[in-house]
Specification:
By secondary structure, this protein is α/β, with parallel strands linked by helices. Helix content is 29%, strand content 21%. The chain folds into 2 domains: 207 residues, Rossmann fold, CATH 3.40.50; 132 residues, 2-enoyl-CoA Hydratase, Chain A, domain 1.
Amino acid sequence: MSISEIQNKIANMNGLITVVVNDGTRPSPYKLLADLQPVLAGRVRFLFATGTHRPVSVTEERMILGDGYAGKVVAESNLCDHGIHVHIGSTARGTEVEIHPWLLEGPVLAFNSVEPHYFAGFTGGRKSFLPGSTSRKTVVQNHFLACLEGALPGKLAGNPVHEDMMDGAALLAGRTEIIMVNGVFGSDKVFCGSYDTSFYKAVELAESSCSISVKRPYSSLKVRPGRSLEISLYQAMKAVFLWENAVEDGGELVLDAECSEGFGAGQMEGILIASGGSFKVPRSAEEYSLGDHAVIRLQKIRSRINLSFRTKIDMKRFGFSTPPHSCEATVEDAGFSFPAGEKADA
């Protein structure tokens, strides 16, 4: 879709527009926002869809919004524990959707990037709202579904997390006007429209552009998460979860990421500890704690292959070995891609 077509859609939105954008761990829409400034000027505020992540810093705000908006318009991060979120209903799976109040006060314009996600199938689209703009309670209930069958990378059909997120977005769409703008990592194409149609069109492109053919499992593989995902271990681990199936049983997988912010999430250290011992799998959202789904995945990985790390964090204390000097292959931007063995054999 062209800039002029997107401008025309925005021009028809009435009143103050809340623009929802990713936090600093995802590709930024600042170039597109600059092009849209003529139709947004004077009637826009920004909500960073941080979910349960830390607030966006001043430096990140400038990176995300660009000089045309940063520090010049109202902008705030979704603070999941502030107690301001408004209940708008429950999903078919029982998730109680508590949304940031700004999204109920006028039209909403959401910018996203669509790439593979290790338990939601693909990121982007509906994730601007659930979990990006919801309370911690809502995020916990939704993320418990990542412990269930079908919550896999590159998979939407039958994925309980994705279906729950779509239900949450539908609840919001029933209350306010939404225009969604979805980009795809590594592509200049933009898909603009409703929260569902634009997302699924972007997924079609991401399925091909973000998949990498793998003809046979690697005996040893090094993955670099790519760009902003390398800021913390919590974000960098997405590359491990996306690529571990490309390594043969008993093989080596090395995560190469500086992780300048360390663990990046309060639960990350606990995830590492729990994955090295016994762990009680939660049977309901009430038994679930954020990160439990990652413990389950990490335990399975550690039992099948040798996982090691090149990072500033001391990983030996969690039982991980020293990484090998070299690997059979390296995947760059591994947090934005996924292996497609089936396509390689076709």
